[in-house]
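Table S2 (text version). Query chain:
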Amino acid sequence: MMKRSSKVNIIFFVLIAVMSLLYGYHKSSQYGPYSMHHWRQSDCLSIALNYYEKNSGFFQPEINWTNIDGKQKVVSEFPAIYYTVAQLWKMFGKEEIIFRLLNLSIMIFGFFHLFLLGKRLLVNEFWAGFVVLFLFTSPLLAFYANNFLSNAPAFGLVLIAWYYMYLFYAEKKSIGFIIGTLFFLLAGMLKITALLS
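Corresponding structure-token output:
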């Protein structure tokens, strides 16, 4: 028989899936860059595309633009997501939905950790879930969670980091501090503003 906490976690993921359907992620996941910041979305997509097509090194991100010297190299955030997308494209084919789903998965994983943190702090599964689902109603977060930009995944990583930092605080286990710090570091490398937390 399934434990109560497992059932609650499954209900949480079902509610996130329902909200994702209501937001139309099943349709928008198949689109290329569109709407707000489509130029920046295109840059992100082109970095992944160049990793995919040129097999360039991890620290050699390029975009589909050439400067006056004929170079395509760019300085941007830490290219972990773009590089990962390129590797996934090599396995499953070059589909933009993979990029969007990777970013969305990181965000949902962050939401789940916020839910776990809420259960510990609020000692109430309903309110812990309510907080997360309410946060997911933010129009900006709803739009960018299923997108090409690294803002939402960085935020998701921050939520994971806070969960582990709380474990360190509550249980005095250094592993929580180490894991939390690593997630904060990765979030900050993806988007420096994530370190405001």
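Notes on Table S2: The mean pLDDT is 90. Residues 17 and 165 are 27 Å apart (CA to CA).
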